[in-house]
C-alpha cells in the first residue's frame, strides 16, 4: 500500500491511497488537513482530526469512589488523544496537588480492569491510554513534539472477516499517521 500526494485536475494536493497496481482511493484534498503531512504509517491514511472530547457521565470506580480516581479518569476522557502515564500525572497534579505517580498507576490498572480505558500502543512502542467509549478511530502523531490526537474518520471500507490476497483474513486494523502539528510546522515569514 502506498500513499502519494499528487496534482489531479483542479485539486492541487489530492492525498491518494494506492491499494494496488491499478487501484487508488482519493482520500481528501490536502488543503483541508490541519497538519503538514511528512510521513505515514503505510497501513492507512485518515483525513479528519477530532476536537476536544467532553467527559462522559459519572461511573463507579471501584469499591471506593475517590477524588483521585475521578480526576485521573476525567483527564483521560477529556483528552483529544491518548495520553502517557507522565502526561496523565502532570494533568492530574494540576487538579490535585501532591498526587503521586503510584496513584496514577493503580488507577490506570483499575480502569483497565473495568474496561473503562484501553491501552494504545503506537508504532514507536509507546503505550498510552484513552477512553474505551471512543469507538473505532485512529491516531495522528507529531514527528517533532510527539503529541498524539484522535482521528475520528476511517477510510478503510474492507469489512472485518474479508479474505486478503495470499489467504489472509482481516480481523481488525489500527492506523497511525505521522506529520507535524500546527505548533511544530515551519512558519511562512
Characterization of the model:
By secondary structure, the protein is an alpha+beta fold. The protein is 19% helix and 30% strand. The chain is built from three helices and eleven strands. It has helices spanning 67-78, 85-95, 101-113; strands at residues 2-8, 11-20, 23-29, 36-40, 117-121, 127-131, 138-142, 148-151, 163-164, 168-169, 176-180. The protein has a four-stranded mixed beta sheet, with no helix packed on it. A three-stranded antiparallel beta sheet has the order 1-2-3, with no helix packed on it. A hairpin with a 5-residue loop joins strand 7 and strand 8. The two termini are 36 Å apart. Residues 1-21 and 25-58 have low confidence and may be disordered.
TL;DR?
By secondary structure, the chain is an alpha+beta fold.
Output the keywords.
single chain, 189 residues, alpha+beta, 4-stranded mixed beta sheet, 3-stranded antiparallel beta sheet, 3 helices, 11 strands, 19% helix, flat
Main structural class = alpha+beta
Radius of gyration: 19 Å
Number of strands: 11
Count every helix, treating DSSP H or I runs of 4 or more residues as helices: 3
Largest sheet: 4 strands, mixed
* Portion in helices: 10-25%
Shape: flat
**Average pLDDT, to the nearest integer?**
75
Helix and strand pattern: EEEEHHHEEEEEEE
SS strand fraction: 25-35%
Report the span from N to C terminus: 36 Å
Strand order in the largest sheet: 4-11-7-8
Amino acid at each position: 500500500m502506498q500513499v502519494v500526494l499528487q496534482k489531479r485536475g483542479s485539486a492541487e494536493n489530492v492525498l491518494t491511497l494506492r491499494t494496488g497496481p491499478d487501484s487508488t482511493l482519493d482520500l481528501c484534498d490536502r488543503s483541508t488537513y490541519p497538519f503538514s503531512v511528512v510521513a505515514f504509517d503505510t497501513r492507512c491514511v485518515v483525513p479528519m482530526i477530532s476536537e476536544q472530547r467532553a467527559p462522559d457521565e459519572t461511573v463507579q470506580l471501584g469499591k471506593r469512589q475517590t477524588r483521585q480516581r475521578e480526576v485521573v479518569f476525567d483527564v483521560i476522557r477529556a483528552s483529544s488523544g491518548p495520553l502517557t502515564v507522565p502526561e496523565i500525572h502532570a494533568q492530574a497534579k494540576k487538579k490535585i496537588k501532591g498526587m503521586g505517580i503510584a496513584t496514577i498507576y493503580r488507577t490506570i490498572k483499575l480502569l483497565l480492569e473495568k474496561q473503562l480505558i484501553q491501552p494504545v500502543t503506537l508504532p514507536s512502542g509507546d503505550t498510552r491510554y484513552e477512553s474505551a467509549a471512543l469507538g473505532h478511530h485512529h491516531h495522528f502523531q507529531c514527528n517533532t513534539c510527539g503529541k498524539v490526537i484522535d482521528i475520528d474518520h476511517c477510510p478503510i471500507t474492507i469489512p472485518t472477516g474479508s479474505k486478503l490476497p495470499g489467504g489472509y483474513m482481516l480481523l481488525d486494523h489500527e492506523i497511525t499517521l505521522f506529520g507535524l502539528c500546527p505548533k511544530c510546522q515551519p512558519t511562512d515569514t
